[in-house]
Amino acid sequence: MSEQAVNPRTRTVTWKDPREGASAAKKMSGLEYLRAIQRGELPAPPIAELMGFTPVEVEEGKVVFGVQPGEHHYNPIGMVHGGLAATLMDSAMGCAIHTMLPVGVGYTTLELHVNYVKGVAHDSGELFCKGEVIHLGGKVATAQGRLVDAKGNLYAHGTTTCMIFRPPGSGGAKE
Asked: In sequence order, what are the residues at sequence separation of 6 or more whose Cβ sits closer than 8 angstroms to the Cβ of residue 4?
């Protein structure tokens, strides 16, 4: 009999209605919105609850997320799935861009590039992903990210390109 059959694990994930946060996001600058999530005044997005990451630092042009890798993040070959790093990178870099957007302006990822340099296991300790804006234009923004442990050991690094959505007539269409 397999160990999983003898010693099963479970994980329960709960989240709040994501429409509350999405509605608030339309009325706040990106920085205000992300800080409200960090303070617990607005609900974390469901993906953060599912993956288990939390905002550690939110500043203009920079966001840091932390995560404790667990067995529930494992792939079939016994390591944390690369999707955890990619999701953290996408979130931290995109949110770094979001911190620089005014009320009513949104974004979405156009391109995500992740370089994996070290495998992650459940005993790797807490990991931190720092996203920082490289360029913020009227239509396109870019950011870079690094996934490290508490000692600064690098696990992944990458870049993103995001499309900026501005309301008609708001200006800011420079590039």
From this structure: none
Encoded tokens for 121: 């296991």
Q: Which helix (H) or strand (E) holds 30?
A: helix 30-38
Q: In the predicted model, what is the mean pLDDT of the chain? A: 93
pTM: 0.92
How confident is the model over 100-122, as a mean pLDDT? 96
Backbone dihedral angles phi then psi of residue 36, each to the nearest 5 degrees: -65, -40
The DSSP secondary-structure symbol of 41 reads S
For 152, phi and psi rounded to 5 degrees?
A: 90, 5
DSSP secondary structure string for all residues of 57-90: EEETTEEEEEE---GGGB-TTSSB-HHHHHHHHH
SS3 134: strand
Q: Left (φ > 0), alpha (ψ -120 to 50) or beta: where does 171 sit?
A: left
Q: Domains of the chain, with CATH numbers?
A: 17-165 (3.10.129.10)
